[in-house]
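Record type: monomer structure entry
Structure origin: computed from sequence
Chain ID: A
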Amino acid sequence: MKKILNDETKKYLYYVFDETNQEQLLKQMSTVLIQKKFVKESYQDAVIEREREFPTGLPTGGIHIAIPHTDCVHVETEGFLVGVLETPVEFEIMATNNEYVNVEIVFMLAIKKPENQVFMLQKLIALCQDSEKLMLLKKGEKIEEIEKLLGTII
């Protein structure tokens, strides 16, 4: 795991992860959110369980993503963690039964107010439909542009 952007005041974090197992990746990512006080310790088990029941993998054009999240009772401060994966990790595709996609970017959400979930998901879906923006996130080279992009989500 390597920290790239870590500005809690802007409500987003941006890290690179080298985990290849989905559950271990979710544990690592939720641990970052716990340490940064975005979520309660209960978030970790809750997000893993929710991903089992309601998968969040999305086969977007080129770079596939996942958007794991869980109930607001586990959240302290609203925000999100972008995890760029050095090696793709298999996630089940949202709203399917046993269809999978190799994910390269994970957006782990910490949503405090349920009414904000739809807004944040709409922003993420719009971002994920833009292959150039996803490539910008994946490469991690133009930090100022990445900061501007992530700032539009929350």
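Annotation 1: The chain is about 40% helix and 25% strand.
Annotation 2: The radius of gyration is 14 Å.
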